[in-house]
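User: Could you go from structure to sequence for me? I need the amino acid at each position, not a summary. Structure tokens:
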């Protein structure tokens, strides 16, 4: 029996993808072996890898002058890779702080570059994004970094920050492929796979080619975008099984009608859940409506003592993974692409019942 899994990542995967992977597990397309047993240099795997890249390019309309890399080290690895590839030690880099993941990127960035935080939402308790135009990026900044969607706080940028000629770098880990995005507005888009793309172990990095080749000489090879690009992301052994599964997920997104169709569904799912929260005096979500995430919806009940019973009763009802992040408590429903609207409907029905019993 499958539950509705609202976990923030690793997260629910599309069932048809899991079923296809199962059917191909011991013998991929007559090769007589599973994908995880194949050489990454074999024509079979090189084909799997290239098909995944082509699908990513087509789904996000990635312009031709961007490289698409499939790397290891997670999004956390990119917190270091971004300064190491884009900023010599004498440069400074601009960051926007909108929550836990921005703060982690900033902390990591400080190891390598003079970090200047242009906007800090700590005072809003990470419940908003900076107003458009409220910060100015110095033209000599190496880049502007922001977190497109804060997975813990449930805060998402509704706009692309303006930085003039300075490249905008975005951590799109928990929002990539959930709605349309104009890749050409960014210098770098990176995303850990374990939310909307597939299993953990892979981080997709989309980088404008003119930004390649400026890495510091001490950049580790595994984080060196130009070296990885030259080697088709196979400078070392890639996580082949994860790459293959990401390819299957991308194929599934195509079958669903692509990113704009996903966006329509995701908007409907988010509206259903936020609507339920906003209509109730029992549940609350602190995030400014314009900055509310379509993917991660944190919510509170009036008495924190009800949180554990809520999560336990929900799990009993087949609704899993609803505890908030350990750093903030409360509840959180992650409603990534693979979560059907039926799952969100089941959640709001449960919430309504729980409120009637405990409100
Ligand atoms: N950025 C964001 C927005 C995230 O949600 C996460 C993981 N939850 C990370 C970075 C860190 O990713 P990883 O664990 O793949 O390093």
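Assistant: Here is the amino acid at each position, in order:
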């Amino acid at each position: 029996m499958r539950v509705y899994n609202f976990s923030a990542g690793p997260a629910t995967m599309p069932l048809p993808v899991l079923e296809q992977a199962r059917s191909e597990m011991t013998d991929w397309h007559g090769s007589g072996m599973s994908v995880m047993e194949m050489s990454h240099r074999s024509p079979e795997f090189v084909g799997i890898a290239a098909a995944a890249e082509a699908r990513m390019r087509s789904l996000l309309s990635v312009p031709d002058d961007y490289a698409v890399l499939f790397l290891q080290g997670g999004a956390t690895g990119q917190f270091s890779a971004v300064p190491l590839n884009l900023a010599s030690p004498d440069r400074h880099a601009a960051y926007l702080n909108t929550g836990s993941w921005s703060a982690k990127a900033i902390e990591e960035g400080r190891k390598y570059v003079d970090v200047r935080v242009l906007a800090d939402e700590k005072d809003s308790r990470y419940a908003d994004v900076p107003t458009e135009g409220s910060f100015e990026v110095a033209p000599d900044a190496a880049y502007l970094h922001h977190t497109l969607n804060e997975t813990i706080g449930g805060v998402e940028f509704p706009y692309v920050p303006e930085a003039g000629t300075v490249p905008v770098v975005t951590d799109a880990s928990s929002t990539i492929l959930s709605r349309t995005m104009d890749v050409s507005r960014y210098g770098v888009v990176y995303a850990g796979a374990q939310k909307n793309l597939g299993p953990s172990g892979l981080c997709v990095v989309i980088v404008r080619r003119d930004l390649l080749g400026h890495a510091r000489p001490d950049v580790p090879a595994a984080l060196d975008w130009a070296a990885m690009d030259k080697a088709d992301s196979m400078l070392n052994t890639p996580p082949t099984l994860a790459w293959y599964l990401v390819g299957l997920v991308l194929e599934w997104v195509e079958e669903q009608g692509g990113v704009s169709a996903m966006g329509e569904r995701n908007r409907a799912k988010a509206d259903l859940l936020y609507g339920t929260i906003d209509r109730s005096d029992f549940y609350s979500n602190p995030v400014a409506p314009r900055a509310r995430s379509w993917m991660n919806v944190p919510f509170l009940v009036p008495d924190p003592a009800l949180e554990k019973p809520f999560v336990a009763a929900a799990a009993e009802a087949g609704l899993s993974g609803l505890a908030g992040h350990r750093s903030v408590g409360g509840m959180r429903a992650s409603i990534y692409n693979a979560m059907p609207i039926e799952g969100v409907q089941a959640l709001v029905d449960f919430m309504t019942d729980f409120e009637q019993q405990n409100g």
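One structural detail worth keeping in mind: The mean pLDDT is 97.
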